[in-house]
Amino acid sequence: MPIISMIGELVGPVFIYLQKPTGRLGPRIQRSIYHANNIYVTCSKSGKLTKSHIQYWAEKVLRPSVADDCLLLLDSWSAQTDPSIYDKIFTGNIKCEKLQIPPKTTGDIQPLDRYFFRQWKYFKQRICDRIAIDRMDIDITSRNSILKMNSLIQNQLTARKFSPMIKYSWHSSGYLQNDPSQFENVQEDHELADHLFLLFDQLLNSTELLVDNIVTLDFDYYNDDDDEYQGEDNNEDLTSIDGVTNSYDTMCSIIEYSKTHTFLSLRNRYKNIKSKEQLRRMKRYVDSQGTKVQKLRCIDEFVYAEFIRARESSLSVHDSDVRRLALKKHAA
């Protein structure tokens, strides 16, 4: 349950409510639960919000995040529209006015539902897809995994690059007249989503998170215009052994022929073979899997098989996934 402002910012920590049969977090759970200063955690028996949770949210999350008079936009759910909830906590010089969205219009004029939640859910789905694609032994449904994931998503969406996206949530709902024009959303930045997963993977073994600053994610890759860019070697499929150049496939044929024929017969068939030592070196080379191109063929076959498996499982696969799978096979 995040809060967004019309100036394009996430306000305060995100409020997370878990399902717990007892309706409370006992001492043992409170000691083991993941802690971060950008999430506020509570629970209920059903896993759904009640009026008491809204009172708790208003007191612990909303009020500490407001330093001036504000206008609070609420949907028509009765548990959160009771004015007494806010009158009790907004006393003194700071005033909180309420504006209620009409019933059955949340999908049209509620900024979170209209656009922002789509970006949040994409981050979440991308993390789940990565775990499935890479066959990682991670229980994404565990309590701490859920908390860590949402804490990390909240942290990344506070980056300034997403401010126009948050403003657009208000504009598309009809509250801001000026269109924030071109902006980058989460779904268009696959590299950012992958970087987020790497951070999430590191968080899995941590017990708490202190958010001290916002990390700007920039990704630069070499292209053909870079001075340091090196193009592919078109001749890398050819290898020289003792001054004689052959393709990998030719060397394989020579080795196979030598298994069933004498060396004299081999020399008559392959004129460039001069000695048995040369043949032995060629065999050692072939046994070590040969050229880089041949190794790349193995990588291509692995990546293709993994791609088909992911698509059959209805998982989203991007270019960054293909690169990562190739690097994984290369390092194996």
Automatic annotation (TrEMBL):
InterPro entries: DDE_SF_endonuclease_dom (IPR004875). Residues 38-170 form the DDE-1 domain. It comes from the Eukaryota. Pfam families: DDE_1. One of its GO terms (molecular function) is nucleic acid binding. This is DDE-1 domain-containing protein.
